[in-house]
Amino acid sequence: MKESRRLGESDLIVSPFGLGTSTWGTTTDHDAAASQLAAYLDAGGNLLDTADVYGAGQAERIIGRLLGTGIPRESLVLATKSAAVIVDGKPTANASSGYLLNALDASLSRLGTDHIDLWQLHAWDRTVPIDESLKAIETAIAAGKVRNAGVCNYSGWQTAVAAVRQAGGNSRPLASVQVEYSLLERGIEREVVPAATNLGLGILPWAPLGRGVLSAKYRHGVPEKRAENRFFKWYVGRHLNDRAAGIVEVVASVADELGTTPVAVSLAWLRDRPGVVAPLIGARTVEQLEESLAGLDLHLPEEHRRRLDEVSAPRRGYPEVSI
Question: Domain NADP-dependent oxidoreductase spans what residues (predicted)?
Fold first, then answer.
């Protein structure tokens, strides 16, 4: 990863791919996480993204223990999130100032650090005025606990409101918006991408491999045991349809023509999309991560990029397309 990129208009300089940790503390144990981080750092990466709800705090605890083994804190751009809450097994949000600041202190304790480089509001809370949530960001920045802030899973109008309000006299503009984005999920191109690029926010895509589907491992079917899994049905099932299958076929064809893998093709396409700073690579195992890292230097020829653009083009209409 020779290239580096500025995150929005902030002072954060990051590698063109980040390492996501949503499986750490659940399906990825401490030793596997340590191997992933070592492989990522060896490849030249520096952006480590986590959240307080990943593994009910276990992902942050693992990172804290890894930092305690001698990994230089300054070698990482450390990002975490607060505001997402699980109640009775269902996701909701609490973006009140008091909750956010308490959550931040808990994250700092688990991570074993005195500051977060990028603190992100993990979900929009319709019960709390956005100005109250932004006040928590200002308090955290003033206290030196946070260097920069961003938002996650915000719609286009929510992203714009948050960015404009934060820029209106506060100490530091928002740096980023983290959203699902891949060849299988291009919905953010309708509103989020224009909002982010016009307001100076860098885009951090999560699920860059379409929740695993773009790896082509389900190209010829899903193992019966996995297909019956409730989480698999909810999380991956949305990308197992005829449209997605057609996109995967083109990805596999491009990969064959270029002598590479569907994973490399999918990541290269996304890395070079307008506004994208660093897709966040997530993996359960170091082997999966290494497959992603192996294709980091791939640059798609224009002909192949055009084919991928066309087969995955999102549906557009009024008001995104003027009449």
Answer: 18-312
Decide: 257 and 198 in contact? Cβ < 8 Å: no
Which residues are within 8 A (CB) of 126 and not within 5 positions of it... i.e. 6 or more apart?
Answer: none
State pLDDT tens for residues 179-192. 999 999 999 999 99
The DSSP bridge partners found for residue 48 are 19, 78
Per-residue confidence band for 229, with pLDDT thresholds at 50, 70 and 90: confident
pTM beyond 0.85: yes
CATH homologous superfamily of 5-212+262-301 equals NADP-dependent oxidoreductase domain (3.20.20.100)
Of 148, 89, 152, which is closest to residue 125 (Cα–Cα)?
152
* 54 noted as active-site residue: yes
Contact 176, 199 (CB under 8 A): no
Determine which of 172-176, 220-224, 266-270 has the lowest per-residue pLDDT on average: 220-224
Torsions phi, psi for 243 (to 5 deg):
-65, -45
Q: What CA–CA distances, in Å, run from 238 to 195, 234, 235?
A: 26, 7, 7
DSSP run (H or E) holding 278: none
- In this predicted structure, what is the pLDDT of residue 28? 95
Catalytic hit among 40, 54, 154, 218: 54
Query: Domain ranges in the chain?
Result: 5-212+262-301
Segments of 60-130 assigned E as strands: 77-82, 84-87, 90-93, 116-121
Q: Residues 41-50: pLDDT tens digits?
A: 999 999 999 9
